[in-house]
Specification:
The complex is a heterodimer. Chain A is mostly beta strands. Chain A is about 0% helix and about 45% strand. Helices cover about 35% and strands about 20% of the residues of chain B. Chain B is built from 15 helices and eleven strands. In chain B, the strands form two sheets. Chain B has a nine-stranded mixed sheet, sandwiched between helices. A two-stranded antiparallel ribbon of chain B has the order 5-6. In chain B, strand 5 and strand 6 form a beta hairpin. The chains are: A mainly beta, B alpha/beta.
Chain lengths: ~120, ~400
């Protein structure tokens, strides 16, 4: 199992968690952050099936979602499911780090959320 | 600051225009606006071109420099304004501020896009380049995908259903069928896209819960306006239309970093600024062009600008309150949904449509009777850069 290769940024002054990186805190404008890793499983906040994919994806459809990790990091990723039947808002998903697309024959890695309930 | 008026507008029919280049589209709309303003062979001081994709789709940059040369507007100042799908609105804003400041008297603003010369895959990828390059784009997310995720949350929070979305689609396609500038001039029925077994084939999902007829088409097109100080405009023949209010606001790049992703803060703020500057309220508006790239956005924006309370926009749409003759007619042009969405053109096309309305020069089946005040909302990114304009008919 590959580890989740994501760095999130917790503001040292007010504690707001950012992902992706910002040069100044969205809440208090501080410039000092603690680097944190997303922790544990995640909660699926929203999702959709995209049927008209952009150039570079040779498949019929793709399920995309946004999930929140146990330590508050929120991130977009692909959802590892064959359809949205069975998915629901707020359900638990297991984050995996896997190939999300190919470019020039090389795998590009990213988040894949696996439904676990 | 000087009051700024619109003295000329021009637009070409949106759609698939294989025979025309991007420069053709921009030139045709510009010439129509110059003629409408009665400028004849005269020049303008400055030109602002709203365009998002020339560099990517046409492999052409510095488009404004090329346009002034083609139109023989030299040595007018010229620049291209790129701000995603809000490029057109941003170009209008630049023209407005340039005239208001007193620096220029006559400004041409033109927005245009030619998206149909590449495949749907390439066009979808081009539009997706406005998503976050590291944490969104690599996953294959598209703008319909963002809208799908937003719609799922909006439905859950406010009880919006496909029936509500369908009401918006039917209204806008009905109006587009009456607009000679529209990309899709075709009415649709509820049976055809929602109720009958055929609807499954006619109206497949594009990004659930959104379906094909919830989304705008990919279009070619251009629209232009000529701006000048109100005092000069009053001496021309046509009823001057004052840009009475303007607002612009931004929000987080990614949807995931918004505390409440159903709250389109930039829409609320831009509209609030525009209303304050115009000294008008939402209830004073007689006609509005809202950025319905997806049916859900017309509903959400109608709430965020203050026409309806949160959660009541969908009910109002279903009850016909946003139709021509209703409480607040929205997208009488057909909106992005039917007029089409050549991304850089849209913000200017909205201003052109409201100018037609406030001059009272549309045929009866399209004219909002006696309209004095209009609103436009041009929505960039997925709500991360939004412009609003309040336009007012000036009595001569």
């Amino acid at each position: 199992m590959m580890s989740i290769n994501i760095v999130a940024y917790k503001c040292k002054k007010c504690g707001r968690v950012h992902f992706p990186f910002h040069d100044r805190c969205l809440a208090c404008k501080s410039r000092e952050f603690e680097e944190i890793a997303p922790k544990g499983n995640a909660k699926l906040l929203t999702y959709t099936t995209i049927f008209n994919l952009p150039w570079g994806f040779d498949q019929r459809f793709l399920i995309i979602g946004i999930a929140e990790f146990e330590n508050g990091v929120k991130a977009m990723g692909q959802v590892d499911a064959q359809s949205v039947e069975g998915l629901k808002l707020g359900m638990k998903v297991r984050p995996n780090w896997a190939s999300v697309r190919q470019q020039h024959g090389e795998d590009i890695y990213g988040l894949k959320f696996e439904p676990i309930e | 600051m000087r009051d700024v008026a619109i003295i000329g507008v021009g637009m070409i029919p949106f759609g698939r225009r294989d025979e025309d280049s991007l420069m053709d589209l921009l030139a045709y709309a510009s010439l129509k606006a110059l003629d409408d303003a009665g400028l004849g062979d005269k020049s303008v001081n400055a030109v602002y071109v709203g365009n998002m994709g020339g560099g990517i789709i046409q492999h052409q940059t510095a488009i404004a420099s090329s346009l002034v040369d083609r139109l023989s507007l030299l040595p007018a100042a010229a620049e291209t304004v790129e701000n995603g799908p809000a490029s057109g609105g941003s170009a209008v804003k630049n023209g407005l501020l340039a005239v208001a400041s007193g620096y220029y008297d006559y400004v041409l603003v033109v927005g245009g896009e030619k998206m149909r010369e590449v495949t749907g895959w390439k066009a979808t990828d081009f539009v997706s380049t406005m998503t976050h390059p590291e944490v969104e784009y690599p996953y294959g997310v598209t703008l319909p995908g963002m809208a799908g995720m937003f719609t799922r949350l909006y439905m859950e929070k406010y009880g919006v259903t496909r029936e509500h979305l369908t009401a918006v689609a039917i209204k806008n396609q009905d109006m587009g069928a009456l607009n000679p500038y529209a990309h899709v001039e075709m009415s649709i029925s509820r049976e055809g896209i929602l109720d009958s077994p055929h609807s499954v084939v006619n109206n497949p999902p594009v990004a659930d819960p959104l379906h094909l007829y919830d989304a705008c088409p990919v279009s070619d097109g251009a629209a232009a306006v000529i701006l000048c100080p109100l005092e000069i405009a009053k001496k021309t023949g046509k009823p001057p239309v004052l840009i009475a209010g303007f607002g612009q606001a931004t929000d987080t790049h990614t949807l995931q970093e918004r505390d409440d992703p159903t709250d389109l803060k930039a829409v609320s703020l831009a509209a609030k600024q525009a209303f304050e500057m115009a000294k008008l309220k939402p209830a004073d508006i007689h006609v509005a062009e809202l950025h319905d790239a997806f049916t859900i956005l017309e509903i959400a924006e109608s709430e965020h600008v203050g026409f309806f309370k949160k959660g009541e926009g969908a009910i109002a749409a279903l009850a016909g309150k946003t139709k021509l003759g209703g409480q607040i007619p929205i997208n009488v042009s057909g909106g992005l949904k039917a007029r089409g969405h050549p991304v850089g053109a849209t913000g200017v096309a909205q201003v052109v449509e409201i100018t037609f309305q406030l001059r009272h020069e549309l045929p009866k089946n399209r004219q909002v009777k006696g309209a004095e005040n209009g609103l436009t909302v041009n929505f960039g990114g997925f709500g991360n850069n939004v412009l609003a304009f309040v336009l007012r008919r000036v009595q001569q």
